[in-house]
Each structure stands twice: as structure tokens, then as C-alpha cells.
Amino acid sequence: MTTIIDGKGLAERLQQELKETIANDSLENPPGLVVILVGDNPASQVYVRNKELAAKRIGIHSKVDRLPASVTEEALLARIDQYNRDAAFHGILVQLPLPIQIDEEKVLDAIDPKKDVDGFHPLNLGKLFLGKPEMIPCTPYGIMKMFDAYHIPLEGKKVVVVGRSNIVGKPMAQLLLARHATVTIAHSRTEDLAALTQTADILIVAIGRGNFITKEFVKPGAVVIDVGMNRDQDGKLVGDVAFDEVAPMTSFITPVPKGVGPMTITMLMIQTYEAAKRQENAV
Ligand code: GUN
Q1: Which fold does the domain 27-112 belong to in CATH?
Q2: Dihedral angle, C-alpha 47, 44, 72, 90, nearest 10 °
Q3: Is the distance from CB of 37 to CB of 66 less than 8 angstroms?
Q4: Which is the closest atom of ligand 1 to the Cα of 118?
Q5: 118 alpha carbon to ligand 1 midpoint, in Å?
Q6: How far apart are the C-alpha atoms of 131 and 153, rounded to whole Å?
Q7: Name one GO biological process term (predicted).
């Protein structure tokens, strides 16, 4: 029997809890999040809009700072520095990808690690690697919450993560290792990918290729987590997993949409609140 993991429902529950926590908290200022959006990438616009709406629902003060695609690296770094020093914003997020004239690494390095609610700063990724996470990249963090909400055991399980990005694949592997899973990271150069993924008790896919994972890639009874957000020929949102053919053979699977996406946004809100608490307690 297959359980479809209700990421949207879980996200709504966690957001409601967070809203109540914030309303009952004696924080001097509401938690504040600034999202910097450079240029007009259509997918980024949608993601940023969803973050803005979630913040509003929950009682997080949010601002979207829109900069033109032609902005210089220097100007963007100066803007980040301004928010690093602005006590009204406890979290700073620079939406990726950035235009080619801007060095993404320099930008992520410039964010104050205490305000790095995306968890992409080298200091935060280093802490995660050492098993002492403080700010955790939101997509893998949200996936861990789903495993726990559905009581999916991780200890000793064979997990294959397909995709080695700094945003999803690498931090995902670290979080799973910390929970005693046996983790393999696969990627576009992996030979005979299907032979490997067929061994997985838990298969996590973040490769950005619509409907790529078909049933030949999946062990019967596996847990399948789909991080993909792709548009098919008709403009329909599809995941990296061919849901209709794969779902019946799994024990648990996330849909797209309403799976991983809403959890990513929720973890961003939770981390913004936690960052606000830490910053308030530090003064
Ligand atoms: N672009 C795609 N996913 C993300 C994310 O989680 N954070 C940021 N900042 N940009 C992204």
C-alpha cells in the first residue's frame, strides 16, 4: 500500500503552530526576513511571492528587495552589508540563481552567518558537516521533518540521493548520516544509475529533469522523495519522478506539487523565527 506524503498539509500544520508561537512570544520586534531578488527569472518570482505570502500569514515581517538584472556585484554586496547591520531583519535570503556578472560564492559569503536562514554560508555548511548544525538548508531540513512526521525509520537504511548540489544533495546526505543512514550520493556521471537506485530503501531525487525516474529505477516498497520542479511540454509542473508509474510500487512518495516545496518555505519561516530568538537573546 502506498502513502502519498502530504507536504502541503504538514506545512500548513507547522505554519499554524509557528504563527501561534510567534503571537504568544514576548519578542520585542516581530521576526524579520528580507528576500533579495535580482532580475526577473519567472520561477524565482513565483518562489519569492510564495515566501512573502507565507511570512504574512505567519506574522513574520518581510520585505522583498528587487534589484535589476544589471546590478553590479559591488552594489549587491553593499546591499547585503546594509541588511547585515539592520536589526529589523533577522534573516537574509538572496534568491538564486544570480545573473552571470555576479559571483554567487562571494554573495553567500557576505551574508552574516547568524542571518543566513538559507544555511548556505560556508560556516553553517561546515557546522552541518561537523554534526553541529545551526542553520540548515531548508529543502533537506523539510525532508527530514517529513520523515519524522510519517515515522519513516532512517537508522541503518540504504539511502541514495540523486543530485550533488550544495543546496540539496550534499546537505541532505549530511543530515541523513547524522541519523545513522547509509548514504550514497549519485549524480549525472554515475554509471548505471538504475542499478544503484534499485538498491535504495529511500530514494531522494534532486536532478531537475522532469519525469526522469521511471519504475526501473525504484525498488518495490521504497520511500521516494521528489525534489524536482520542472515544466513539461504543456507547461504543467512535474517532478523528477514519473509519479503515475512509480507511486504504486512505493511505500511512501511525495507528489509534485504539494510535496517538498511547501516544506521548504515552512523551514525558512521556522529558521527565521529561531534566528530572531537567538539575535534577541544575544543583546
Ligand atoms: N533557488 C532555488 N532554491 C532556492 C533556495 O532554497 N534558496 C535560495 N536562496 N534560492 C533558491
Answers
A1: Rossmann fold (3.40.50)
A2: 10
A3: yes
A4: 7
A5: 8
A6: 19
A7: tetrahydrofolate interconversion
Q: What is the pTM of this model?
A: 0.97
Tell me what pLDDT residue 26 has.
86
Whether residue 209 is annotated as binding a ligand: the answer is: no
Provide the CATH topology of domain 138-261: Rossmann fold (3.40.50)
Quote the ligand 1 centre to 121 CA distance (angstroms): 13
Concatenating the DSSP letter of every residue in 233-275 gives TTS-EE-SB-HHHHGGG-SEE--SSSSHHHHHHHHHHHHHHHH
pLDDT tens for 141-197 read 999 999 999 999 999 999 999 999 999 999 999 999 999 999 999 999 999 999 999
What are φ and ψ of residue 186, in 5° steps?
Answer: -110, 165
How many Å lie between the centroid of ligand 1 and the Cα of residue 14?
Answer: 20
pLDDT in tens, 34-64: 999 999 999 999 999 999 999 999 999 999 9
Which atom belonging to ligand 1 lies closest to the Cα atom of 94?
9
C-alpha cell at 69: 538584472
* From 44, 47, 266, mutation site for ligand 1 pocket: most ligand atoms within 8 A of C-beta: 47
Q: Where are the domains of the chain?
A: 27-112, 138-261
Give Cα 174 distance to the centre of its chain.
14
Judged on CB neighbours under 10 Å (0-12, 13-18, 19+), 122 is middle
Ligand 1 pocket, mutate which of 62, 167, 268 (most atoms under 8 A from CB): 167
Q: Do domains 27-112 and 138-261 have the same CATH topology?
A: yes
Pairing type for strands 202-205 and 158-162 reads: parallel
